Amino acid sequence: MPATARRFGASQPFDPEQNIAAGTRYVTTLMWEFHGEMRLVAAAYYAGDRWVGKRLLEYRNPDVVAYVEAVRRQYERRKHLTDQLQRR
């Protein structure tokens, strides 16, 4: 992860401002690389973009699968709440 932090501009990855800025750039890059496919973006964020890019969801690692599912559940939950608030 230190290499990824440097790759996206965080020379001091424990600095909150640098960490958030680099993380945002990384997720944006993943969104472009995986054409917005949230499962791939979440898997790449967790396991590494190069690894996921080669396999495209053909992974068996239960940690990665669990992480992707947790992200999907949170996304759906928050999307549902946002939809409810917009209807008011």
Automatic annotation (TrEMBL):
Entry-linked InterPro entries? Lysozyme-like_dom_sf, Transglycosylase_SLT_dom_1
Task: Name the chain's protein.
Answer: Transglycosylase SLT domain-containing protein
From which domain of life does this come?
A: Bacteria
Q: Name one Pfam family in it.
A: SLT
SUPFAM superfamilies, alphabetized: Lysozyme-like (SSF53955)
Where would I find the Transglycosylase SLT domain in this sequence? 1-59
